[in-house]
């Protein structure tokens, strides 16, 4: 039976990936789906003033709130899943979960972005594709905004022009 890791948050893209996982389960009911939500840890100066139990309760509460739409999709479709909630760096937690759970692939959805934006940002998707020991299946989400398609490349071009002019 194949193990699938589905990192989820409260984004519309998480719903797209969840719907794709549900479709895949319909085709292969032996598929085991692991939903993973990674919460950002508290900064040290805040964590020092909260007990471990309080921090854990906070992260559990926020993870379940973030995952509510995804969990509703799975429950309505009567598709079984295992829920995992972790705290830490998203990429590190996802990669550790892949190893620990024996997942054969990762499924996630991401916004469509211009090639320039993808080249200069250090996105979760890019980092997973680069470091994951298993295939990363990416579902295309919403199209890039007009600002990303036109504004960011224009801003980068203007910045490079200024650098070139100042160096001359």
Explain what this protein looks like in three dimensions.
A five-stranded parallel β-sheet has the order 3-2-1-4-5, sandwiched between helices. Strand 1, helix 1 and strand 2 (32-39) form a beta-alpha-beta unit. It is an alpha/beta fold. The protein has one domain (3-167): 3-Layer(aba) Sandwich (Rossmann fold). The chain is globular and about 65 Å long. The chain is 56% helix and 18% strand. The termini are far apart.
Rg, rounded, reads 19 Å
Q: Tell me the number of strands.
A: 5
Find the CATH superfamily: HUPs
Q: Which structural class is indicated by helix and strand composition?
A: alpha/beta
- Here the CATH topology equals Rossmann fold
Q: How would you sum up the global shape?
A: globular
Distance between the termini: 62 Å
Beta fraction: 15-25%
Total count of domains: 1
- Count every helix, treating DSSP H or I runs of 4 or more residues as helices: 7
CATH class: Alpha Beta
Characterize the biggest β-sheet: 5 strands, parallel
Low-pLDDT sequence parts: none
CATH hierarchy: architecture: 3-Layer(aba) Sandwich
Mean pLDDT: 85
Q: Secondary-structure element sequence? A: EHEHHEHEHHEH
**In what order do the strands lie side by side in the largest sheet?**
3-2-1-4-5
Structure described in brief:
This protein is an alpha/beta fold and 168 residues long.
């Amino acid at each position: 039976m194949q193990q699938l890791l589905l990192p989820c948050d409260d984004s519309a893209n998480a719903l797209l990936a969840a719907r794709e996982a549900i479709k895949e389960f319909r085709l292969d009911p032996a598929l085991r789906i692991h939903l993973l939500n990674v919460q950002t840890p508290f900064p040290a100066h805040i964590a020092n003033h909260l007990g471990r139990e309080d921090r854990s309760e906070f992260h559990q509460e926020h993870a379940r709130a973030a995952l509510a739409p995804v969990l509703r999709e799975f429950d309505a479709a009567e598709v079984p899943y295992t829920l995992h909630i972790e705290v830490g760096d998203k990429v590190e937690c996802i990669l550790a979960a892949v190893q620990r759970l024996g997942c054969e692939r990762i499924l996630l959805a991401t916004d469509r972005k211009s090639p320039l934006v993808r080249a200069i940002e250090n996105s979760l998707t890019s980092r997973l594709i680069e470091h994951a020991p298993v295939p990363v299946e990416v579902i295309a989400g919403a199209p890039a905004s007009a600002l990303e398609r036109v504004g960011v490349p224009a801003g980068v071009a203007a910045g490079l022009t200024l650098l070139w002019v100042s160096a001359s």
